[in-house]
Design a protein that fits this description.
There is one protein chain. With about 210 residues, the chain is mostly helical. Helix 5 runs antiparallel to helix 6 and helix 6 packs parallel to helix 10. The protein is globular, with a radius of gyration of 17 Å. It starts with a helix and ends with a helix.
């Protein structure tokens, strides 16, 4: 069992370079999309590169990856124009299970923003597969929203605040589609915090992405 754990750790380290590359290309594609259709060729190229890195990242057993790696992979895979919802859901489920496994080890801790993003990503995937039922139920996005106080308390630095913007924005958009009054509240909080810590996120919120 110890040998298997070590192999998993080395596998994660070997794959780790793909995560920031995928995230960087995906973020660049989203930012350029806010600037208008004339940037579409560059958006397409960055999106394609993000998918290439994600496919490399998930080429291993999903359960050998970290929760953060699985969040990045799932988030990119579910994005349009060519979403792979089934594989994205598998990434989010695996990430939640990995986080639960890590929680049993007192030496390590999964950041609350990662847990929130895994749950909201899963909720967004379920929304596309069973829109009426999942929007009415709220479901896993309620689990995501429950981590917001922990993010505020445990991740007060600039990085934590930027992650909180992402969680508030995505939970807010989900709840707004469901007709939940928390939607407007969360989106307003996301915009106010983004104006303080992330100009890129302000543009994305205004563009509705």
């Amino acid at each position: 069992e110890l040998g298997a754990g070590r192999k998993g750790h080395h596998r994660r380290k070997h794959l780790e370079p793909y995560r920031p590359l995928a995230r960087a290309h995906s973020g660049r594609a989203t930012t350029l999309w806010t600037r208008g259709f004339r940037w579409l060729p560059f958006v397409a190229w960055h999106f394609w590169r993000a998918r290439v890195h994600v496919r490399a990242l998930i080429s291993a057993n999903l359960y050998a990856l970290s929760p953060d790696q699985l969040d990045v992979a799932g988030t990119i895979l579910k994005r349009r124009p060519f979403p792979d919802i089934q594989m994205a859901m598998e990434c989010f489920y695996a990430g939640i299970e990995a986080a639960a496994s890590i929680a049993k080890n007192a030496k390590k801790k999964v950041p609350p923003h990662t847990l929130a993003l895994l749950y909201v990503g899963l909720g967004e995937c379920q929304e596309t597969s069973d829109r009426a039922a999942d929007l009415a139920r709220g479901g896993v996005c309620d689990n995501a929203a429950a981590f917001i106080p922990r993010i505020e308390a445990e991740e007060p630095d600039i990085h934590g605040k930027r992650q909180l913007v992402r969680v508030l924005k995505r939970c807010g958009a989900y709840f707004k589609r469901a007709g939940d009054p928390r939607g407007d509240e969360f989106l307003a909080r996301a915009k106010a915090l983004a104006e303080e810590v992330s100009s890129d996120q302000v543009a994305k919120i205004q563009a509705g992405i």
